Structures are given as structure tokens and as C-alpha cells.
Amino acid sequence: MKALWFSILATLVAGLAHAVELKPIEHKVIHDQRTFLRDATDRRLNVWTNDPAKAAPLLKEFEFAVPDPKLQKGQVLAIFFNDTITEDLTAITHNKTANHTFADYADSGIRFKLKAPPEGKKYSHATAVIFTPADALSNLGLRGMATGGLSEKR
Predict the structure, then answer these.
(1) What does UniProt give as the signal peptide span (predicted)?
(2) In angstroms, rounded to a whole number, what is the distance separating the alpha carbons of residues 39 and 109?
(3) CB 47, CB 58: distance < 8 Å
(4) What is the dihedral sign for C-alpha 124, 130, 131, 136?
(5) Alpha carbon separation from 54 to 28, 61, 120, 123, 127 (Å, rounded)
(6) Region class of 120: left (phi > 0), else alpha (psi between -120 and 50), else beta
């Protein structure tokens, strides 16, 4: 009987040790463009920088008419690309267990009737945000991201 209780207790402790701990991260949306045109072969899920000198040029590269965001020490400017344009960014989350930060999207309920994009292009929902990550970043992800998608640091 004592061995059975020990076995049950060990199983419970082991289960708690592997629990996923998710922490929401506050963010500020500085630009949102639901029908952003980009190359059909572009596999980037996001482009981001934590260098204040690169923030304004990054926004200009994508032709976002946004004033210089003036990043503070420790902040990150990220531009997320979601090829499902009916989804909206709802949260940025840090998985403490896996030490991974990612964007969460949910269906907006909005439906579109758009003309087809030009040959070799696709529509993506581009969202530029500023946030302070919980830990040092090596990459950013999208929950349920496409296999082979890229996170590009500038």
C-alpha cells in the first residue's frame, strides 16, 4: 500500500514538473494592414529587431507610414505576417517551459471578397507591434505556424 501511494505521488509530481507555463506579454499595435501584398514565395512569419537604430528603417522597408517608434532598451519591434487575412493578432505569449515567444491569432469573423492578387503575389495580414519580451529572444513564432516559416531578426 505504501508503494502504491509513493507511485501515485511520484506520478503527480512528475506531471507538475512538465506543466506548460504561459505568460501573456503586453504589446502595442502601431500598424495593422489586413491586405498587405508580398511575394508569393515569401515564407517569413515575422521580421523583428531590438536595435532602436533599425526600427524606423524596418517600418519604411515595408512602406508602413508610422512615426519613428523610438524603441526603449529591452523593447522589440516585430512585424508579424499571417497569410490567413481573416485572423487578428490577439496576444503575444511567452512559454516559460520551452522559452519560446509567439503571436496568438483568432478568427475575426470578417469575410472578404477581394480581387485576386497580381501574379506572383499574395495577401498577408501584417501587424507591427512593440513589446518587451520576458527573456532574450532568438526567434518569434506564430501559434499553429506553417511548417518551414521563417523568423528573421534584423
Answers:
(1) 1-19
(2) 26
(3) yes
(4) positive
(5) 18, 10, 28, 25, 17
(6) left
Q: Which three cell numbers stand for residue 10?
A: 511520484
Which amino acid appears at position 76 of this protein?
A: V
Residue with cell 515569401: 42
